[in-house]
């Protein structure tokens, strides 16, 4: 069989699989250049606004990009990628698996075999739905250096963008459990450079239509000035940043309190503000756990865990955050503690979420648990406990 005929046969298989609803997926692999930034491409058949499209996930060394094409454009893109970027293409259908590969002399070989799977996946565009933040022409992501002017992920910013998407997904899930009506008031304590503050405000305003008034509280004046400038450029009129300490913040009405990576007792200050304001949602990702560490003692079986600094530090983290969760429950919140982002992004990856119960009542068992935990480790008082007296 002549070389062009082999390639033509492979592309006919792609078109036929799409036409007959037998298409499962495709993968383009083995870059022609070992140093090429594009490592591989994963292709799905999806339905976008009732129109079948080919969705390409391009895996680069530093980030992933998703591009969607019409069927005709998509097949042309596969052809271009095979000619210029990759030596191997795999087509998986419900009736058979097909492989097109090129050797060092660029001669093609076409192989086919039995199907790895006969189950055709849903055409729902799940991956797009999970991305709540639009990156194309995103003013604040460009201003913060996450996205370039060409709408590409900036070098070494792929992890930060994934963190933003993950955070918004978590918050979207939490908001689905609340009965909030517009307008709402959000305070973000220790907002820093505002990556997550901007993204959440964007989602609440443009996706959930909650007309948020969002305040970022940050101690460093230079970051406050920068974030206010970006908020103005993004036309987020109800988003503002303020240079003040968390304990100086005052609000009679607060729906959502957030504190991500506020150091040591600053997390307790933020939680206390949320409880005192009767916020419907409190979300914190604690950083540093120094306050109770000097108090921790144990003469029991756990004593060996406290003789090494690193283990004592981790024990302090667990005890501190456990008491925080229990104190939130004591004040009428349902809590959850979990890892919200990979340790590749940050070592401080524990998140505590608390949703206000409709009927608030003090659980005696919770009070007993707090007392017993403090007594066992020789803790006189947790800082959050002092703030809430």
Description:
This protein has 389 residues and is α/β, with parallel strands linked by helices. It has two domains: 3-129, no CATH class; 139-387, Rossmann fold (3-Layer(aba) Sandwich). 35% of the residues lie in helices and 27% in strands. It has eleven helices and 14 strands. It has helices spanning 3-19, 71-84, 126-129, 139-143, 158-175, 195-207, 221-233, 265-276, 309-330, 364-376, 383-387, and strands at 23-31, 38-48, 51-60, 64-70, 86-93, 97-102, 108-113, 184-189, 212-218, 239-243, 256-263, 281-287, 333-339, 350-356. It has a seven-stranded antiparallel beta sheet, covered by helices on one side. A hairpin with a 5-residue loop joins strand 6 and strand 7 (108-113). Helix 5 (158-175) packs across helix 6 (195-207). It is elongated. The protein starts with a helix and ends with a helix. The model has no long low-confidence stretch (mean pLDDT 87).
